[in-house]
Amino acid sequence: MMNLRPWTSTDQAELVSRAQQADPSAFDELMQRTAGASLRLATSMLRNHHLAEEEVQNAYFKAWRHIHQFQGESLFSTWMSRIVVNQCLMHLRGVRRSKLVSIESATDSHGKVRPLDLADHGANAEDRACGKSLAVVLSREIGMLPAKLRLALIMRDVKELSTVEAAMSLGISASALKSRLGRARIELRRRLGSCAQRHSQQVCG
Known about the structure:
This protein has helices spanning 9-20, 24-46, 49-65, 76-104, 122-130, 134-143, 147-158, 163-170, 174-204. By secondary structure, it is an all-alpha fold. Helix 7 packs antiparallel against helix 8. The chain is elongated. It contains nine helices and no strands. The chain starts with 8 loop residues before the first helix and ends with a helix.
């Protein structure tokens, strides 16, 4: 593994320029520089490390194929984050479609839809989470937020991107990003408050 020194926006621009001239070593360094952040972002969206690794690989393949389309209007790392987000969203949409097909196909021999026996483990899972460390609970509750709100929170409060960088990564306006972030923080506080209340009731009971 190469020894990676701290890099600047100028370094990124130089590597991108070389990659656009079909220099695979330059793109390899860009990939190594951003791989950790890309994997964390994908994992936070998919909540499965193996799937996250696969989609990150797909994202880098697409980035290499379309590197000539990068215009330098943002940092390469921001552009890469947006590709990872889009790749993960494509995966999630595919999962939702397959679930719908599976449910709609659940018919008996007479063509009637069979009732689905779906056990509700949500409450027990939440109760168990409340007994864990704050870090574990926080991570879990962020993961329970709606995808759009979760991404806004991750981009700003976890990855600590600026409002402009986060908005560009998600392909939305800065005002839309601020709106989603505000709603995400309110919802997260509500969830954490409920969790703390349940834990307190368990201890006192």
